C-alpha cells in the first residue's frame, strides 16, 4: 500500500459497514450486561472475573469499531482508485503464462462469494500493487512461482470477468 489514504471499493465498503453494524450491536449487548451487573453488593471473585472479561471484550469491540470507522473515513477521503497504476480498488486484467486471462479487483476485504476479489495482502495482490499496464509480475503460489502480465487496468467500478 502507498502509505496515504487508500481507496475503498464498493464491495469492501459494504462488508465493513455490515461488520460495523454487527460490532455495534454486540457492543451494546455487552455494555448492557455491565450496567445491569454488580450493583452495591460486593461480588465474589468469579463475579469480578466475569466483569473484567466483559470490560476486556468491550475494549476489543471499541478498538475494532474505531479501526473500521477510520478505514471507512480514509476510503471516502482517498477518492476513486487510480487508473494509472494498480492500487486498492483497481480492476485488473492479467494474462498468465498459459495464455489465460482473468480480471480481478484489488480489495482489502475478500468476499467469500466473489471469485474476482483479490486482497491487497495476498501474493497476487502484493505483486500487482503499483504496477502498470504491460508490467510483468511474479509471485509465489502453492504450486510454485507464477508469472502474469498486466493486460489492462480499470477503476474498479465493475466486476471483472473471471474466465
UniProtKB/TrEMBL annotation:
Domain Transcription elongation factor GreA/GreB C-terminal: 82-152
Domain of life, source organism: Bacteria
Alphabetized Gene3D superfamilies for the sequence: Transcription elongation factor, GreA/GreB, C-terminal domain
A single GO molecular function term of this UniProt record: translation elongation factor activity
Claim: Acetylation is one of the keywords in the record: no
Xref: PANTHER family: TRANSCRIPTION ELONGATION FACTOR GREA
Protein known as: GreA/GreB family elongation factor
Source organism per UniProt: Streptomyces narbonensis
Amino acid at each position: 500500500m502507498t502509505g496515504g489514504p487508500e481507496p475503498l471499493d464498493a464491495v469492501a465498503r459494504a462488508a465493513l459497514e455490515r461488520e460495523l453494524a454487527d460490532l455495534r450491536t454486540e457492543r451494546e449487548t455487552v455494555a448492557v450486561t455491565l450496567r445491569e451487573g454488580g450493583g452495591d453488593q460486593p461480588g465474589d471473585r468469579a463475579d469480578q472475573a466475569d466483569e473484567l472479561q466483559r470490560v476486556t471484550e468491550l475494549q476489543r469491540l471499541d478498538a475494532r469499531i474505531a479501526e473500521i470507522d477510520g478505514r471507512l473515513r480514509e476510503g471516502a477521503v482517498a477518492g476513486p482508485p487510480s487508473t494509472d497504476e494498480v492500487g486498492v480498488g483497481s480492476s485488473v486484467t492479467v494474462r498468465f503464462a498459459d495464455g489465460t486471462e482473468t480480471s480481478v479487483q484489488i480489495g482489502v476485504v475478500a468476499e467469500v462469494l466473489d471469485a474476482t476479489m483479490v486482497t491487497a495482502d495476498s501474493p497476487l495482490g502484493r505483486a500487482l500493487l503499483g504496477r502498470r499496464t504491460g508490467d510483468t509480475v511474479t509471485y509465489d503460489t502453492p504450486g510454485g512461482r507464477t508469472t502474469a502480465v498486466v493486460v489492462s487496468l480499470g477503476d474498479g467500478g465493475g466486476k471483472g470477468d473471471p474466465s
